[in-house]
Amino acid sequence: MIKLNQVSDFDIKLLKIFKTVCDSGNFTAAESVLGISRSAISLHMSDLEGRLGMRLCQRGRAGFAITPEGKEILKNVEVLLAALEDFRIQANQIQKQLKGEFSIGIINNLVTMPSSFITQSLAELSAESRDIRINISMSTLSDIECKIMDGRLHVGAVPLMTPLSGLDYFDLYEENNYLYCGHNHPLFQQIELIQTAELLQYHTVMPSYSIPNEAQQLHQKMRTTASASDREGIAFLILTGQFLGFLPDHYAKKWVLEGHMKAILPEQFHYSTRICMVTKKGVKPNMILALFFDKLKKIKA
After folding, report:
1. Cα(103)–Cα(176) distance, rounded to whole angstroms?
2. Is 135 in the same domain as 184?
3. pLDDT tens for residues 102-113?
């Protein structure tokens, strides 16, 4: 078995190709991104696997799939590339250059929030320098927290559930969630007449992601017979007319205005979630990150 005794520039090039292939989903999709042929990509991948002494991905008629070893290598590649980018940013700061990558993780379906603090801050940050490359990844709370802790993300916008000791939190806004039904649901035409006890007989969607204690208590009162991994999944089930479910008011607004959804007993069945911007505690000074927060605080003020 060949072992990688030291990491050369060529090794880093191969690791970047591997990451691009994983991000693209297969060799064919990676061709246009990398600007090289599929056969060349295959040769590079075989070379990398030989250097590491392990199989990173399966490819063939059955399709492309990352091996368990490949998933571990990919995670470490992301940490390595983030560290290299951090070094580049630190070096540029010595010469007071606003240059480098800015990686931000955001939970899904936050773009419809009326208070567009994040959008405005990113717009102003981008306008400051053409040499700032903004990378946005939409993900889950736990994934964003993990990537901030190991340096793969500079900052994240997440709901505040259980604060982690290694992260700093900056309040953005409150997100209000209400119980909704679809226009084909039996309750839609009698919203004003509904009694709390009636809701127990109807199917409700339970989120499989983290929710506040207040939300958990509300769901415990309901007849939860389905689950969804994100808010878009909850919306899908509500729109079937067979399920009730909680959604942020800003996300449900489109369907409410179109007459496809209605809130049920909003005075009783609602909860709020604090949305925060998080960063790693004790992180090295970063001109781009500092500028982003400076703009964010001024916009929010």
Report:
1. 27
2. no
3. 999 999 888 899
Tell me: pLDDT of 1 over 60: no
Buried b (16+ CB within 10 A) or exposed e, 67-82: eeebeebbeebbebbb
3-state secondary structure 221-269: CCEEEEEECCHHHHHHHHHCCCCEEEEEHHHHHHHHHCCCEEECCCCCC
CATH number assigned to the domain comprising residue 53: 1.10.10.10
pLDDT at 92: 66
What does the pLDDT average to over 192-205? 87
Spatial neighbors of 94 by CB under 8 A, at least 6 apart, are none
- Which two tokens mark 13? 């090039």
Q: Are 141 and 209 in contact (CB under 8 A)?
A: yes
Query: Where does residue 149 rank: exposed (0-12), middle (13-18), buried (19+ CB within 10 A)?
Result: middle
> Can you say how many angstroms the Cα of residue 43 is from the centroid of all Cα atoms in its chain?
33
Judge whether 89 lies within some domain.
no
Structure tokens at 194: 């509904």
Dist CA 26 CA 32 (whole Å):
11
User: What's the structural domain count of the chain?
Assistant: 3
